[in-house]
Amino acid sequence: xxxxxxxxxxxxxxxxxxxxxxxxxxxxxxxxxxxxxxxxxxxxxxxxxxxxxxxxxxxxxxxxxxxxxxxxxxxxxxxxxxxxxxxxxxxxxxxxxxxxxxxxxxxxxxxxxxxxxxxxxxxxxxxxxxxxxxxxxxxxxxxxxxxxxxxxxxxxxxxxxxxxxxxxxxxxxxxxxxxxxxxxxxxxxxxxxxxxxxxxxxxxxxxxxxxxxxxxxxxxxxxxxxxxxxxxxxxxxxxxxxxxxxxxxxxxxxxxxxxxxxxxxxxxxxxxxxxxxxxxxxxxxxxxxxxxxxxxxxxxxxxxxxxxxxxxxxxxxxxxxxxxxxxxxxxxxxxxxxxxxxxxxxxxxxxxxxxxxxxxxxxxxxxxxxxxxxxxxxxxxxxxxxxxxxxxxxxxxxxxxxxxxxxxxxxxxxxxxxxxxxxx
Length: 424
Hints:
- The protein is α/β, with parallel strands linked by helices.
- The protein has eight helices and 24 strands.
- The chain has helices spanning about 105-110, 125-140, 195-200, 270-285, 300-305, 320-330, 360-370, 385-395, and strands at about 10, 25, 40-45, 45-50, 55, 65, 75-80, 85-95, 150-155, 160-170, 170-175, 180-185, 210-215, 220-225, 240, 250-255, 260-265, 295, 310-315, 335-340, 350-355, 375-380, 400-405, 415-424.
- The protein is globular and about 60 Å long.
- Mean pLDDT is about 90; it is low at about 1-25.
């Protein structure tokens, strides 16, 4: 079991300052052509923003969010969207590159046709540093914390065990970012090999979308399709079900030394390695807390059940599939409540784990936590901006931010997972 020994905390990384250079390279491995009538601008990028784009300014003073650029680069940009106060653009070519730029390791990312791994052109160490800086900035600006304590967790790189694909002509693939354009994939290094095999070689019949899942530790595979189940041609070990009628289809994943049932419609972490890192971080966040614990937005029961099984008394989750899995995974000693957290009537608890959706707790979620009377909280956030907003809301209720850990669960992407501890 490697739960508490697989990661080590590392200090923020330093990003080298870009020196002037005369070379010119393409933003992608192949030239990108601007759309007709789209303005072109040359800008110098300043920093990275939440959402993965870099920030620069046009000659008229407006902010432009640039996709495909690193901080400290001079780039030629196609302006794709114009608002009164800001614009968005796409890099056409890089005039002065950052030393932290690298060639994309994926043919689909290299051409810009895939919108998934939007940071594949950035060196891994620089990705970590950018994510750390973004979290600090959001806690300062939105959370109103002058000097937040933020650490980065060095995590074993994992490959995704759940992917959602578009399908065209029976072939699976992805879409470009902010676009409905799709393509058939010939590779996907971000996906677990047992999923990549299906993406490349399976025939999905008349489906337009499929979700592929695998238990990395068990090898069990499952496909959710919106097309005819009988038309899907895959190896015999793969379960195939329709998304409207998945029945009892499920896979099993082993995390923290025990199995977890994950039904076809249940949420689970993006990789086994990421789940291990997240559980370990939550356990660290709980250190020093005592008493009965409630797990909110609990999913299949992973965080509370793996990080604090001896203290877990209640799990709250709205998804029927996840609730059924939580009852299976946690047993009869834990009270499993099927309800939206915002509509739940709590009893008293000493400690709370909360793992809300991307939008964060919001006022209603923070109010539900407040009604527990708890004095310790571990908050899992999958968006730095929602973490900043939630931190400000919690402060109004007397919560003090202790520290945050940035977990790189989504390598080569701008997505950021943060585990934060609060006390009051």
